[in-house]
TrEMBL record:
It comes from the Bacteria. The gene is lptB_1. Keywords: ATP-binding, Hydrolase, Nucleotide-binding, Transport. Signal peptide: none annotated. One of its GO terms (molecular function) is ATP binding. Its EC number is 3.6.3.-. SUPFAM superfamilies: P-loop containing nucleoside triphosphate hydrolases (SSF52540). The keyword Membrane does not apply. InterPro entries: AAA+_ATPase (IPR003593), ABC_AA/LPS_Transport (IPR051120), ABC_transporter-like_ATP-bd (IPR003439), BCA_ABC_TP_C (IPR032823), P-loop_NTPase (IPR027417). It comes from Granulosicoccus antarcticus IMCC3135. This is Lipopolysaccharide export system ATP-binding protein LptB. GO terms for cellular component: plasma membrane. Residues 6-250 form the ABC transporter domain.
Length: 253
């Protein structure tokens, strides 16, 4: 875990004069699970959007594995091995679960990919097998032929996670991965992410559920008002009075 995989250096971002991010500096080491927490409107999702190229910072840089991501398009960043799982699941509702997972596998392999090409590749056995295995790992193996539109919100979250993992990312960015899940599904997701951690995958997680955060995080950055007010281990963050005042509250630590 000595190597820094992601470095966000002095990033600023404003919207119509409102400072969404100010003086953001954080580093994520290889194999680390780094959680970003904070109240609504703190700038967490804005920060992830800057990291994946959906937003360009007003100043500062995002460095991934030595490469400057600033100014690159989202698909270029994705091809470098950075994958984001969104707060609102981005899936293909008219396709089956199996087809949903096959698409990112093909896109990772072949580069730019168009949905109109999909049927041409859908019979490939190796791709199908990999997609089936990923769905099985996520507890969705019995639903491979079901249309994604019929899934519960929690299962849609798990499907998008499967789509992200199928791309074999070097850095996985998760925006509230357990939102909308029942507690048993949340615990199953925690177990899955722990298994991924054991395989050495680097992850950045935005999450409001402190049970999830403290179960997974090696380090935590706390955002409030677009600024990082605290960084450290879970124990250090729990003990910081600024964090208690801004977010966690006495009863949560």
């Amino acid at each position: 875990m000595e190597n820094t995989v992601l470095h966000v250096a002095d990033v600023h971002k404003s919207f119509a004069g409102l400072h969404a991010l100010s003086d953001i500096d954080l580093s994520v080491k290889e194999g680390e699970t780094h959680a970003i927490i904070g109240p609504n409107g703190a700038g967490k999702s804005t920060l992830l959007n800057v990291c994946i190229g959906r937003l360009r910072p007003d100043s500062g840089q995002v460095i991934f594995d030595g490469a400057n991501l600033t100014g690159k398009h989202p698909h270029e960043i994705n091809q470098l091995g950075v994958v984001r799982v969104f707060q609102t699941p981005e899936i293909f509702p008219e396709l089956s679960l199996l087809e949903n997972v096959m698409i990112p596998i093909l896109a990772k392999r072949d580069g730019a990919f168009k949905l109109s090409w999909f049927r041409r590749f859908s019979g490939e056995k190796t791709v199908r097998s990999k997609a089936e295995d990923m769905l099985e790992d996520l507890g969705l193996g019995a639903l491979t032929k079901v249309d994604a539109s019929s899934l519960s919100r929690g299962d849609k979250r798990r499907l998008e996670l499967a789509m992200g993992l199928a791309q074999e990312p070097r850095l996985l960015l998760l925006d509230e991965p357990t939102a909308g899940m029942a507690r048993h599904d949340t615990n199953a997701t925690i177990d899955l992410l722990k298994r991924i951690k054991a395989q050495g995958m680097t992850k950045v997680i935005i999450e409001h559920d402190m049970h999830v955060v403290f179960s997974l995080a090696d380090r935590i950055s706390v955002l409030a008002g677009g600024k990082i007010i605290c960084q450290g281990t879970p124990e250090e963050v729990k003990a910081d009075p600024r964090v208690k005042e801004a977010y966690l509250g006495e009863e949560q630590v």
